[in-house]
Amino acid sequence: METLASATELRAFLHGLPGVDQVGAEERAARLATRSIKTSAKAQAIDLAITMVDLTTLEGADTPGKVRALCAKGMRPDPGDPDVPQVAAICVYPDMVPTAVEALQGSGIGVASVATAFPSGRAPMEAKLADTRAAVEAGATEIDMVIDRGAFLAGDYLKVYEEIVATKEACAGAANDGHGAHLKVIFETGELVTYDNVRRASWLAMRAGADFIKTSTGKVSPAATLPVTLVMLEAVRDFRDQTGRMVGVKPAGGIRTTKDAIKYLVLVNETAGPDWLTPEWFRLGASSLLNDLLMQRRKLATGVYSGPDYFTLD
């Protein structure tokens, strides 16, 4: 983890990053989105996308029963086809972590928990860290934190940097297994407004120790977009070139169809490279995407779509 000496140095570094060519980024993302793939490659892409899904429920009405049902679906997405791979993680609120941990025991699926006053990030730092420690102590293997967008937009980069560092330390210090939880840092890119801000937030989070950078909470529109994800993928690629450390990327919010998912996979391959085409380094945050992936998978295998009640609704 790199330490920056002062707020002045951090500001100078972030504002010294090259500006993002907005037109160029949007045109490149649009061009890559038109790529077509062969049927055999599509089948592989669907299975790969399934393994990258962070299957998510983040509602005030979440119950233990709903979380257990989601975990069962993550482990066996299609009970009628044992060849369907399982998802990467189940993402829940901190109080639902024990339920998810129990339901997923022995499956190898991660338990991701949103913490640090999700989705607004508006809470004292002590509360955010307590939220994080409680989730990790309960068994969360991944923490999805939200940055203080108000501080970032006001130019208080050091505050955001120090919050990420402290949360990263809480992920490690509260773990019962000695390894700690991976930290995903959520920017809420719909509130950052500009691609330049997205690039700055990416570098800020990576230098503070983030294991993943994530677009959105899914509670603000626009959420994930291809151009925003392109900027983030360029950042992790360049960060590895400079430091030798890989950081993952997670677009989340608004990714609902197989066509959407495949566009993101093409974007990853053509921007960061094939090293990122694994659940270890790329995730898709979604609640309804899995159903469409399963329907398209069955269509490729049988030539017909399943009935609307074949897969469980989330």
Please write out the topology.
Blueprint: H1 7-15, H2 22-32, H3 39-52, E1 53-56, H4 64-75, E2 89-92, H5 97-103, E3 110-115, H6 125-137, E4 142-146, H7 149-153, H8 157-173, E5 182-186, H9 189-192, H10 195-207, E6 212-214, H11 226-243, E7 248-250, H12 258-271, E8 284-286, H13 289-302
Parallel strand pairs: 1-2, 1-8, 2-3, 3-4, 4-5, 5-6, 6-7
Helix pairs in contact: 2-11, 3-12, 3-13, 6-8, 10-11, 11-12
Question: Short description, anyone?
Answer:
This protein has 13 helices and eight strands.
Structural write-up:
Pathway: Carbohydrate degradation; 2-deoxy-D-ribose 1-phosphate degradation; D-glyceraldehyde 3-phosphate and acetaldehyde from 2-deoxy-alpha-D-ribose 1-phosphate: step 2/2. GO terms for molecular function: deoxyribose-phosphate aldolase activity. The structure is a single chain. The protein is α/β, with parallel strands linked by helices and 314 residues long. It has one domain: TIM Barrel (Alpha-Beta Barrel), CATH 3.20.20.70. It is 48% helix and 11% strand. It has 13 helices and 8 strands. It has an 8-stranded parallel beta sheet. Helix 2 packs across helix 11 and helix 11 runs parallel beside helix 12. The radius of gyration is 19 Å and the shape is globular. The mean pLDDT is 93.
